[in-house]
Batch of 2 targets.
Target 1
Amino acid sequence: MQRTFGSGRRSRLIFWLTCTNIFFVVAPAVVPARAQSAAADPAQPAAAQPVSITLEEALHRAQANEPSYVAAAADSRSAALDRSIARSALLPGVVYHNQYLYTEPNGLQNQAGQGAATQAAPKFIANNTVHEYTSQGVVDETIGLGQIAGLRRADAAAAVAAAELEIARRGLAAAVTGLYYGAISADHKLAIAERARAEAADFTSLTGKREQQREAAHADVVKAQLQQQQRERDLSDARLAAEKARLELGVLLFPDPRTAYVLAAPDTVASLASRAEVEQAAARNNPELSSAMAALHESDADVLAARGAYLPALGLNYTYGIDAPQFAVNGPDGVRNLGYSASVTLDIPVWDWLATAHKVKQSEIRRDVAKVALTNTQRRLIARLDEAYAEAAAARDQLASLDASAATAEESLRLTRMRYTGGEGTVLEVVDAQTALVTAANAREDGRVRYQAALADLQTLTGTM
């Protein structure tokens, strides 16, 4: 039994080892086959491709995701509805009024003119009968200066809300433009840092070879290694800055800011319009000026509404239906219950302890503030327009100089390396040339972002964005 058991255990062990070897031999061949079949199967989900985003698409997406702009759009729609509500106050209102009124009876009394018929009288003398049914259509209309002023105020408030929405849209466009070109610049700076790191590593290799050939001192190798380590740190910082820039823009573009996307960089830089065209566009289409002007109109409407309290208010009422002891068109004695009544009311203000005069004074004070705000907006617009145009012109003029500096720095590095390789230059000259190239390339990217941001600010003021 012991011999049989030992033989069976060895057999199972041999079988298990054989299966294991077969698995390790077959599995590497099966996994690629499965991968190929999954790639060939269109039903399998493919890897998500990065979304290509243009500046126009970024602006469109940001308008749907930015809370301040969405709130401004909601305020504008709400103000438009307020204008419709104020307009309806000038039109007659219609109400279908239904009421049943029961009053405790106070015994019986004879009804004059109705023979021997008797009817219970109500205890409250103000009520008409014990059982009273009212079913009437009521048309009311009030005519006064307050309703007209309310409509004017609602129109002005809607204009203010529309101007504020345009201000929010242009501000969002300027912010998205800055983030958009900032992210592109961060990607370019990352590429610059990668090239600088590769250049530093290549130079470290060159100094090492020259040291082996006894053409350079070990101090050159040390200096090159220090430069390479600095470039590696710069590359890490540039990679972090690029990721942060993409996340900040992604917050405005996607539900998940970590969504992979590619920015479509424009091939050419937008041109700057002439000074005369910019001034004409700013004077014709500036939302801040429109908002201040609409705010002044709103203050004028408040003054008109306050002064309207001095004038009489005319009220018109027309009522058609029944108001009878029976809920019927005709009473039991053949009297017709259905009829109408009309009234005209004229309320003339006499004395309110100067409350109206004080309200008028308050509205005039607020109107004076609106006038000052309007003139200040005009002055600020002139100053901002000059500043924005000067900034855009200076940034545009520096673009060519920055491109030339980057090209010159690149040529200087090439020549300096050739001189060092030939034994005529020093390691410090090469390191300085490398640093100058990185500085010039980064300055060129900063200059492009500066020009795009200045141009976006100018387009925001003129309404061309």
Target 2
Amino acid sequence: MLDKWDLKPGHDAIAFMESMVTDPTVTKVIMVCDRTYVAKANAREGGVGTESQIISPEIYSSGSQDKFAAVMTDADEDGRPYIPTYYKGRIYFDFRSGDRFEDAYEQLLRWLVDRPQYVKPKIGSVPEAILSAAPAATATQSKARRAEQAIRESSVSAVAYVREYGDALVPELQALSPDIARGEATDEKVLAAVAAMRPYARQLVEIAGVAGRYSEDARVWEALLAQIERLARLMWRQPDIMSWHPHQFDAFKIIARDVFVSTLAVALDEERFELASTTIDRSWLIRPTEGANRPSTSDFTAFDNHVESLEHRKQRLQLNRISLHADLVHDAHATGSAPSFESVLQAEFVIFFRSVGQATQGRWYPFPLVYASDRFAPFPLFARAESEAFFARLAPVLCVPDVAEFRRRLTEIEGGDRVSRMFDHQGLPVKYLANADFLGSRR
């Protein structure tokens, strides 16, 4: 409706204007506001003034706020829009600039036909992943995210942020150490402590995943390994602890081992074999030095320590399980986790291979591989190693010069007593897991 179209000679102009309020078929009213219109509206002059007197009560009293809208076409010297006083504070359509015209026109059209650009969605249900999610490591979350962002951006401060994260992480983990008294069911307290530490372990491995994917600076990975080293020191009694229970440090043994293996797993998943080699070949300063003529550093086997409280639990509850520790690792890397349980098993296999037949300071018992004892398919890493070029890249991690030597070592391992007696004499199909017959078969 427009007066030029619908207001004829002899018609009542005031009745026409009142129809904006009284006619139920009128659902939208546009007020085109320029300097002259606003001056007359505010002064209640002429037809515009009459129109304003009709509109303003409706705007103030009506519960509906979407019938009247101002189209602003003019502004004063300070850029303030010319809008009638009774319309102040309400949203208007800005047509002052030709550059804005198309956007403003679309907004106006959407308002006219009640098709807003942004539609509020229905309230959904809380995702199951959120309801069942494990607690977050909130105490160190901010520092972890800062470290991840610095790594992604290749910031020169990335190393410093990783160290800063470690400074916050270690005290948090120390505070979660179980308070164990003699005569208690220590395994329950150890498992409760492990559950509380898990979010921090995942957080540390997430940083490793970011570093493996985005960072080309070897110092970042080294700084990350240094934080794992600090965590691993908690596996042993520190000099300032004068009284302790034999199971006091079992939770740290479980967590530190899992973090080490998971970190290697993410490096292998990203095919960052130079980082994997750095991780497994590193000299770790984690064991307390006791006595003379003993090296201060340890190799990777320092992460594999007997967790006595789990054996105690197995006997106490008469659980028919080969390894409760393997079950813990399996449950910690459920479907959708990163690294996946398969990736963890793959890393365990690589570490075990490195520990057999080599001059390591200790032994590595790959108890999670009980879950692979009946698997007769290769791990993904070794499936891809059917390519000669891929195996050549992987060889330094395995510490072998070529495929022939790797096969020879596998045959030696599979025929040894250590593998045949493994997992209650179930053994381990090492040749199948390593894809021995097909390695390097493709160019």
